[in-house]
Amino acid sequence: MSTTHEPQGLLGMKPEEIAAVFAELGQPAFRAKQLVEWVFAKRAASLEEMTNLPKATREALATRFVTRTMSIAKVTGSRDTTRKFLLKLRDGRYVETVLIPANPALYGGASDRRTLCVSSQVGCAYDCKFCASGLAGFTRNLTAAEIVEQIVQVEAYAGERVDNLVFMGMGEPLANFSNVTKAIEILNAEWGIGIGARHMTVSTSGLAPQIKKLADFPLQIRLAISLHGATDEVRDQIMPVNRKHNLAELFEALDYWNQKRKQFLTFEFILIANVNDSLPQAQALAKRARSANAKVNLIPYNTVDGLDWVRPSEASQDAFLAVLTNAGVTATLRREKGHDIAAACGQLRLKQETELGIIESPIPAKRITIGGGAG
Predict the structure, then answer these.
(1) What is the pTM of this model?
(2) Which of 17, 73, 118, 138 has its CA 20 to 30 A from that of 93?
(3) Which of 178, 189, 173 is nearest to 222 (CA)?
(4) Is the distance from CB of 348 to CB of 78 less than 8 angstroms?
């Protein structure tokens, strides 16, 4: 049950929670099953659509629950057919989600996979220096319903099924552990959205204690680490979380993960010119990837307005990749889709909230120079 006066989103409720509501209302158990079917199988957008529920029951539910917690405010598409969705929440704030087709040439037809990059928070408290999500700070966690609804909204708009999820949008998923894991259970369940656990990846900036906690989570989801620095010297200056959970602590947590799981880990590594794209960084990354039995996704930096970073040349990118592959590391270089639609996390939301006066235009307080410290 919700502990606030805000209506609770039905997309974030499990069947046993819905059954408890109907028991409280003095309704027979089969009514709860009807509601679950309307919410998840039929994707009813309003209680009024649930015509086999008595009108009095629908009215009683409407005082406490909603079928939708957000609306699509804007959709931007790119030349490579990646689409970014700006979603307006009930409290007037915004989050983003990005739909990425596996094969752009097949967009609008059959495709092997549709990946959705899902947000878990409004803003972010972790202040990674290359990312727009945290420029205006942290506002709040998303509820389980708001997380699940991102998939429902995008599928309804696109007319396509999403079958692969990555929690790599706005926010740090493991800082919203209870809502994210509840959403994953709903997304995975046969009565829910029905996405396979192995088709869901949680990406973290390196919250070591929560990584251990997630390792004990029963569903066989995948884990990605936003690494972006293979030594503490470099990572400290890019990712402030490293000062609390350094690489030694992070890799101790990854050892625990590997004891519990059989899937490969993934290291996400954004390449930033003259910051972390040196060949010594590549060599250090290769050692760490081998030690953790991890594959590496290299991603050239995606320009963010207001930040000074630039992406390396393609020759530098290729040289970095060659060091990894020559060391026997499974690695890919993803010259990302969506660069022309501001697809880096948080950019579209930041622009919208600034224009509406919800937040002041954030100006980065400091610039980072590797080797010279914060300037």
Answers:
(1) 0.86
(2) 17
(3) 173
(4) no
DSSP secondary structure string for all residues of 104-155:
GGGTTS--S-EEEE---EEE-SS--TT-STTTT-EEEEPPHHHHHHHHHHHH
Read off the tokens for 307: 């930040």
Compute the distance between CA of residue 268 and CA of residue 30 in angstroms, rounded to an integer: 46
Residues 6+ apart with CB under 8 A from 106: none
What is the pLDDT confidence band of residue 348, given thresholds at 50, 70 and 90? low
Q: Which of 96, 149, 268, 353 is catalytic?
A: 96
Task: Confirm or deny that 117 is annotated as ligand binding.
Answer: no
Q: Give the pLDDT score at 228.
A: 96
Residue 141, marked binder: no
Rounded average pLDDT over 93-113: 68
**Rounded-to-integer distance, Cα 323 and Cα 311, Å:** 18
- Both tokens of 61, joined, read 């539910």
96 among known catalytic residues: yes
Identify whether the C-beta of residue 69 lies closer than 8 Å to the C-beta of residue 90.
Answer: yes
Of 299, 295, 301, 300, nearest in space to 331 by CA: 295
Q: Is 128 annotated as a binding residue?
A: yes
Which residue matches tokens 């959403």? 183
Which residue of the set 146, 149, 268, 345 is catalytic?
A: 345
Classify domain 8-66 by CATH number.
1.10.150.530
Tell whether 203 is in a known binding site: yes
Q: Count Cβ neighbours within 10 Å for each residue of 140-168 and write b for 16 or more, e otherwise.
A: ebbbbbbbbbbbbbbbeebebebbbbbbb
d(CA 277, CA 168): 22
CATH 3.20.20.70 correct for 70-374 = yes
CA-CA-CA-CA dihedral for 133, 135, 141, 144, to nearest 10: -10
Break the chain into its structural domains and give their ranges: 8-66, 70-374
Contacts (Cβ under 8 Å, ≥6 apart) of 187: 148, 151, 165, 193, 195, 200
Nearest CA to 270 out of 320, 220, 206 is that of 320
Give residue 44's pLDDT band: very low, low, confident or very high (50, 70, 90). Answer: very high
